[in-house]
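Re: the pair you flagged

First of the two:
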Amino acid sequence: MLYCAIIGDIVGSRKLADRSEVQKKFQAVAERACRQYQADIASPFTVTIGDEFQVLLKRVQTAPEVIKTVIREMAPIDLVFGVGIGDISTDINREMAIGMDGPAFHAARKAVEQAKRKKPGVIYRTALPEVGAGTDMINSLQYFIESCSKKRTKRQKQVLELLEKGSTQEEIAEHLDIKQQSVSNIVNWSYMPEITGAQKAIASYLEWIDHYRH
């Protein structure tokens, strides 16, 4: 069976003035994510060395949503993630994501170390030759997504956050006291259509991987 191992790490954690509070927040986020994604978790979120967590998923296609949730709830703290796709050679630990071994974890470790050294902040790796070329494509799209996201202005981020919470463009226009067309322009200028397209391409390929090996 194919698994997806994710290793997440706080960037520059040792330099944080409130490191202990960030670690507590990190632990709380990991616990909430465990409950939220319980159906897709093979081995639960486990904070391993204070500034890092591991989780093992049953489905590769769940990884982007898991990562998005952790990033959102940990903001403005920066994190990097390594996603490893492959088999597990040991028994699955259903209590915590430690004491396991196999290509999925090896790939995730290499990926997170790479993410610490250079962009993008989320990197996918696998030892499976038939999937490997696809992960190169995913990493290129991920770099595109991150680059576009970082170019957004404060107003663009504000509008997109309200959209994500379920507000309509008309409601946002009224809330910000601007025209609806202005909201539409802000959405378009924030690279949202391009980013959405890239995210759909990643999701489609990850879904293919799940069907390929299950």
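Second of the two:
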Amino acid sequence: MNQATLEKMKHLKLYGMHRAFSTTMETGSISYTNDELIAYLIESEYDDRESRKVERLITSARFRYRAFMEEITASSSRNIDKNTIGRLSSCDFISQKQNILITGSTGVGKSFIATAIGYKACTMGYKVMYFSINKLFSKLKMAKADGSYLKEIDRIEKQDLIILDDFGLQSLDNLKRQDFMEIIEDRHGKRSTIIASQLPVSVWHEVIAEQTIADAILDRMVHNSLRIDLKGESMRRKKADQKISSE
């Protein structure tokens, strides 16, 4: 009878419940009351579904690498403290529809922090997408050519959080400005966006390269945003030096 029950669980895709009940049978853990056993099986199924949901969200986000909030180094020399990390880790900014602007020189950890926030958001059930911004513009250009542009823009708009990395490596031409404006306009006051850039916010006007559109974009992005201006030496160089010294 137990085997038939296990087969039905699998057929119904109750994988967490199946695993828990199977383990209970194998280990002979029959000390549960009926209520306790039901609660245990339901809790196992719930945990399994939540875990699979998080993995789906992480896969859909298409991060370049794994990063976790616990790995972020807080120090005054980097201009980021534990309180800021804790605030970001709570992901309250998403429910408050705030943006985050992360700036700093090459290698100081902008992308890592942005990705770590994205990972944390996924574990809390938020829909996230990560983009290298120049690759995003290329993708949107191809989408216009094959007729899928509106579908792609709609998908971006529906994400609880998008991460736009490497902003400012190239000035925006008219096509990119229009795409960028549409993304920011669609999300303004409704969803959160993280932008990571080597350039300080004060020169973003020059990157956007058109005064009126730049004013409109920055008014929507900078207002009600959390700003992190990272300082210090390159974390990549520091890790490389530590690796060499330990060899």
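The chain has twelve helices and five strands.

-B.
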